[in-house]
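Morning - adenosine monophosphate inputs below, output right after.
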Amino acid sequence: MELWGKKTDRGYTVVIGCGRLGANLANTLSDGGGNVLIIDKNKDAFRKLSPSFGGLAVTGDATDLSALREAQINKADVVVAVTNDDNVNIMAAQLAREMFQNRRVIARLYDPERECVYRELGIDTICPAVLSAQEIARILSEPDAAEERVRESSI
Ligand code: AMP
């Protein structure tokens, strides 16, 4: 199976999990001209892809080797595992690194305490809980914009 035609030189990203984060990422990368293949075990999840999505969608369990082979994960420049299950993400990320020799692997992690496991395996992590805490702390460190607007409108 030849996955891509003319866009091959733009890099190939495999996104695992077509949930709110995965679908958003796949849409963004595809709209930016990237070659994207997205895998989800539930085919209804692909409804979240935008009509402009120009990549491929494969139904399969990301912990199943045949699904990863079908996605030609070995050819991916980047693999991003963003299901809602840390165990699935770590397993898929580990298979991508060790079995399919992907150099660049990023995984979503709900439990920040497990980050060290991923680091040892050479997998980059995105932890929504940590990122959200940092963002809230940043907002709190700034003047209250909402209160300023209320004050200005009452002058
Ligand atoms: P969300 O919580 O909205 O980011 O959605 C997570 C997505 O991950 C859902 O669409 C799930 O169907 C998908 N998912 C969960 N486990 C697996 C798995 N083992 N293989 C493929 N997709 C999965």
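Note: The pocket of adenosine monophosphate is lined by residues 17-21, 39-42, 45, 61-63, 83-85, 88 (CB under 6 Å).

O.
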